[in-house]
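=== Structure Prediction Worksheet ===
Name of assembly: unnamed complex
Input type: mixed (protein and possibly other molecules)
Chain count: two
Listed entries:
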Amino acid sequence: MELALSPDQRVLLEAFEQFFRRESAPMVVRRAEPLGFDAELWAALATMEVWGSDASLSDLCVIGEMAGRSVAPVPFAEHAVASRVLGWSSLFSGESIAGFSPRPANEHGVWSVVPAGAVADVIVGMDRDEFVALVSPPPMAGPRNHASAPLADRSARLGELSILGTRRDFDRACAEWKVLTAAMLVGLAAAALEMGVEYVQQRQQFGVPIGAFQAVQHALADLPGRIDGARLLTHQAAAALDAGGGGICDVANNDITDAHALASMAFVFSADIAADSTARSLHFHGGYGFAEEYDIQLYYRRARGWALVLGDPTTEYLALADRLWPDDAPARRAAGS
Amino acid sequence: MDFTLAPAVLAYRERVRSIIAAHHTPQTEHHQHTSGTFNNPALNRALAADGLIERAVPGLGAGDPIELWVLFNEMEKAGAPLDALAMAVMIAGVVQHVGTDAQKAAVIPAVTSGGALICLGYSEPDAGSDLSALTTRAERDGSEWVINGAKMWTTMAHEARWVILLARTDASLPRHQGLTMFLIPMDTPGVRVDPVHTMATERTNATFYDDVRVGDDCVLGEVNGGWRVMGVALSFERGVMGGTNPGVPLLRHTAAWAQESGRITEPAVREKLARVAIDNHVAALLTQRSAWIAASGGLPGLEGSMTKLFASESYQKASRWFQEMAGAEGLLQLLQPGAAAHGWIEYDARHSPVTTIYGGTSEINRNNIAERHLGLPRMRR
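=== Predicted Assembly ===
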């Protein structure tokens, strides 16, 4: 048992904390709106040699958390997952951008509202029974959205198609995407809490900092334990995937080591705490939190946007339930009857 | 990060599990819920006979703190009563740390053999979260101490061999400094135990101390050093001795009910089961972190606050969800025909309220986190 980051990971953490602080300052995040992609930041990130390195998923979680802290306007999770699947040198160099559709294409062969869909040169995802990659020119524009994220609809059929595998291969990639997105949401949640704590120490009302009020303190004090829990869960899921998957779902003994279940749990738990952390922090900013001029609104919108591209979280809870209680899963019942 | 347990710890866990399975039975559970005494002496003795308690004693046992955590987590997950044993084991650790040779010789073998219990005389009728306001006093009379006062929530006092009693020995000193810890046999003349019955069946007690005369041999630690002794006890507890996974038996019982009743097919039911499974898992990870910090030489005080807050609040939420889900049958109690989950759902709905109160209320934990982790002002309004 070792619940600290490895020495190498601590080096990574420090390097990327500094990198994103420097290269993805709030000014850069704002500059990238509404598209939600900053080419300069992307080019700078490529020089950090993240893509195509021998970094484990656990290592990528360390970097992803730092990207999340700065709500970096780059498709970190999508490009990381797709690069690992495709292994193309153009992706490793950052010359090409990859997107990932966590939802399958519809019956018309269209991936809807794809993360990085507005800017990616290649999208990977499910179409019918196949896990595919499709190269086509990115629109470099998309519908204006809550998170100012580079979302767009993309065809799964019109363009240069490669077949990557089956549903099973997609499930593995999707689990990786959930874990990396969870890591980014953990970073986002932690940064939002710090912003809230800093603000309530400065803001004076009734002659004292509002952070002296117990009502304010208590609503913030609920958050750090949940954020730490989300980080531990995310790293546990990453470690399970790094170990090649597998594991068990022994709910009766509270012993869940199944990599896919852990990835799913990490995703919804991190999304939940990111939504709460940003909502409370924004609230304690008072009216200023609602003003575009303050940064907390950037975090509030991305906390929701980064998670909801997977769909209604209820669906994910139900998918998790099917893993935890497989004998009672609807598909299993339908097959048996 | 590596979340896996070492082979020796897994072996320990397996031994604990098999002993619990053999000695925590429907009969012992029934006895617990009819007598109100939440302790299973046969289970404690069986664990002791296998040397599993001695291994876990905080600050003393070869398996502390990882096996200490595993022991109480396994008991909690199985739904076995653990608080009585936990108190005794924790105090054994404190005695080992600050006690005299005579105290060690009396207490430690008695606890590690699984027989003796020790109750906690901390809270008073008018001193709960603000413990340093306590008024029980111990006054010098020659070579003796004369103790007068009352303690509340002295759970297991009616079965315990000793009480550790925090009393004021010097009213002229600042509130935290004039306190002394005593280790007093419960059969000392002047000690009286009155039952306090609770909503969750478990019996606790009020204890009264009326001119109780003891010698210096009953002082635990230094005179006027009682607050420090309490700190030692807290530092040994570390949030790993149960109380952070009460949702596990609740989920097990509820999932079994959902399967038996056919309600398991309903998406609304499946969603809530999944959400509680996640909370239980996170509570376990946070507890594992505390054990790991302690094993690495740290003192997980703040982490313990965060864990207790999250675990107890989540458990309360879950017990309400599940009782609502079970509807009218969720009102029926243990052994009543037709009771949802054989009455466990109703039991947890009665039990969960106390978990955000005892062992540090949610408000005290939030204060602690706000001040010491977030760095917010200590002066509150």
